[in-house]
Amino acid sequence: MRKLAAGNWKMNGTAASLSEVAALLAAHPAPACDMLLCPPATLIARMADLAKGSALHVGGQDCHAKASGAHTGDLSAAMLADAGASHVILGHSERRTDHRETDAQVLAKAEAAQVAGLVAIICIGETEAERDAGRTLDVIGTQLAGSVPQGSRAETLVVAYEPVWAIGTGRTPTIAEIAEVHAFLLARLTARIGAEAAGVQLLYGGSVKPSNAAEIFAVPHVDGALVGGASLKAADFGAIVAALAAA
Ligand code: PGA
To answer: I need a labelling partner for 170 at 20 to 30 A (CA). Which of 25, 115, 127, 240 fits?
Structure first.
């Protein structure tokens, strides 16, 4: 399977930030892995223009579950696709916290994204309190069952394991802990969508940076990363892309 280096710019970036994309493309014109950046929605069309004909894919960070209608401030999956997006991040822990998104809402958004032809990147992960209580697999299993559409095909789904306590903190689980979760994810995903699961890219996210990328990418069933802070700078994201391409 092709591996995926995905960057989540979160609420960062203006037109000036597109110079980082140009630098990334110049340094990595044809990497041996998939590359994706998910900028704020205001930059999707311009980034997609820049990326046209290159190895870089562009994605959104959320979408509405409905195709259109009276939902001020929201964007539909079809609108993201129309702007040039191929992927959309759904159920990121910041949305689950800031906007109280539930598994059921993430499921509905993922179905809408897949109908619109987007790849749904579904994020799941435990809080620190849940890990300390020994509930990690329990929590992840529930989120997966609640938010991954049952009929998902491999080419329309990516699952990102992002421990909430590792996001933006500089802390990461141990290699053994990541390995345990990813093996569990593959098993649960297989139970949910059958043989298609083997082709689904399983990403690790949470404080991935150039200095720890190679050891994380060596973990079985880690097919790439969802990178926040380190995706904002071409040099850092490029180093992570290079580590993945070499893995
Ligand atoms: P981080 O964020 O790499 O800055 O920890 C990861 C994410 O939230 O996707």
So the answer is: 25
Is the shortest distance between the CB of 168 and ligand 1 below 6 Å?
A: yes
Count H helices and E strands in the chain, helices first. Answer: 10, 8
CA-based nearest residue to 88, from 54, 65, 70? 65
The CA–CA distances, whole Å, from 97 to 50, 100, 135 equal: 32, 5, 19
With a 6 Å cutoff on the Cβ, whether 172 touches ligand 1 is no
- Of 103, 108, 99, 107, nearest in space to 65 by CA: 108
- In the block, which residue shows the tokens 């822990």? 93
β partners of residue 205? 226
Q: What are the pLDDT digits (tens) for 32-91?
A: 999 999 999 999 999 999 999 999 999 999 999 999 999 999 999 999 999 999 999 999
Quote the tokens at residue 207: 């404080």
Burial class (CB in 10 A: 0-12, 13-18, 19+), 139: middle
Which atom, in ligand 1's list, is nearest to the CA of 10?
8
Q: Say what the pTM is.
A: 0.97
The residues near 31 (Cβ < 8 Å, ≥ 6 apart) are 5, 55, 241, 242, 244, 245
- Per DSSP, the three-state class of 232 is coil
The domain limits of the chain are: 4-246
Could you tell me the CA-to-CA distances from 178 to 78, 94, 148, 201, 206 in Å, in that order?
A: 34, 21, 20, 15, 11
Nearest CA residue ID for atom 7, ligand 1? 228
* Amino acid making up residue 30: A
For tokens 């071409």, the residue is 234
